[in-house]
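Hey, I'm writing a tutorial for new members on how sequence and structure tokens pair up, and I'd like a real worked example in the thread rather than a made-up one. If someone can provide the structure for the chain below, I'll link this post from the tutorial.
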Amino acid sequence: MEPRQHLPAKRNNGDRLVAVVTGASSGFGMLTTLELARQGYLVVATMRDTANNRILIQQVGEARLTEFIECMPLDVTDHGAIGDTVNRIIYKHGQIDILVNNAGMAIGGCIEEIPMEDWEKQMDVNFFGLVAMTQAVLPFMRERRQGKVIQISSISGRLGFPGYGPYAASKFAVEGFSEALRLEMLPFGVHVVLVEPGAFKTSIWNKGFDHMAARVPADSPYSRYFNAILRYSKNTADHADDPQEVAYAVARIARSRYPRLRYTLGKGARMSILGKALLPWKWFERILIRELEK
């Protein structure tokens, strides 16, 4: 388990470092918010509806972190609201040192049968919202010649798993965007980092499973294969890792002076990526399909 430090996160002039986390009401976002606050950051926890922050507020109170966290409403698909929110944060706190782009959702199903509105919704949340949030923060980091943009991507950004086409497409987009952005921003002292979790126990997958099951009718030509995918996914989720590990990793990256581009997290994730990189694709896909058919 990742060791935690409890040193105050402050600049040389004594000001507290400011972190902004999107999608902070649950899952990785909530855990990351709490961990960064424990590390001494002032964390602006944003979420689409602050009425959903009950669990976060309870955790904040129990951990006695009230002075380190404030909540703000933010829907990352509302690009005008993003600019207003970032300006409010800058006006109030004078800086944004860390941006954690975590807001996301998972849409699955069989590609032939997924309506275009679902593809658009997936990209709006996972990719275009992330781009808009990043663009809003970059000028302030560039002018100060420091900052970190931490993208919560996924192993699905490196490996397109059947049944998760929209989600994989959005995360592949995040990966390419972030590679290009890192090279653009390094000369300005701003580091862009990709965190690539494998299977972790978060609510995004339960919501995704329900959506996927509703999208594939019993008379679909894909129903047998899809049900095998869903069985495999649920079994993987049942044995998934503790999402707190991702929060620890993000906090460590935030404190790192020279973070690398990618951090792949979770059991099996590194092996999957390594297998894809080293094995002939024909071998790799046979292994994957065989696993699904067990």
